[in-house]
Design brief:
With 121 residues, the chain is mainly alpha-helical. It has a single domain, classed as N-(1-d-carboxylethyl)-l-norvaline Dehydrogenase, domain 2. Helices cover 61% and strands 0% of the residues. The radius of gyration is 15 Å and the shape is globular.
Length: 121
C-alpha cells in the first residue's frame, strides 16, 4: 500500500513537471538529491523513460493487495484516504487492460488525463 501511494504521488508530480516543460530525467535527479527521494524513483530509469511496463509487480496483484488492505482497515475501523486514491489508479489500469503490466504503467494513464501525448503511443 505504501509503495503504490508513494509511486502514484511521484508519477503525478512528474506529470505536472512534464506538462510545465521540464525533463523527466532532470526532475528525477533533483528529487533524488532532495527530501522527496524514495525507492519509487528507480521506476524512472527502469520503466518510465524506456516505457518498459513488463511486470515487476502486476497491476492485478496490487489491486488485490489494496482490496485486502482496505478490508482490514475497515474491520479495525481505521479511516484511510491515500490508499483509496492509489487504488483508483490501479482500477483505471485494470479497466484499460493493463492487469498484467507493471504498476508503473499508471504513468501512461496520468499522462493521458493530463493531455500529454507521446510519439511512441
Amino acid at each position: 500500500m505504501m509503495s503504490t501511494v508513494n509511486a502514484c504521488t511521484m508519477m503525478e508530480g512528474f506529470i505536472v513537471g512534464l506538462k510545465a516543460g521540464l525533463d523527466l530525467k532532470t526532475m528525477a535527479e533533483i528529487v533524488k538529491a532532495s527530501s522527496g527521494n524514495s525507492n519509487a524513483l528507480a521506476r524512472v530509469d527502469r520503466a518510465l523513460i524506456p516505457r518498459n511496463f513488463e511486470p515487476g509487480f502486476k497491476v492485478a496483484l496490487m489491486n488485490k493487495d489494496l482490496d485486502t488492505f482496505h478490508a482490514i482497515a475497515k474491520e479495525v475501523h481505521v479511516p484511510v484516504t491515500f490508499s483509496n486514491l492509489a487504488q483508483h489508479y490501479q482500477q483505471a489500469a485494470l479497466a484499460a487492460g493493463y492487469a498484467e503490466k507493471d504498476t508503473s504503467v499508471i504513468f501512461t494513464l496520468i499522462e493521458r488525463l493530463a493531455g500529454i501525448t507521446r510519439p511512441e503511443q
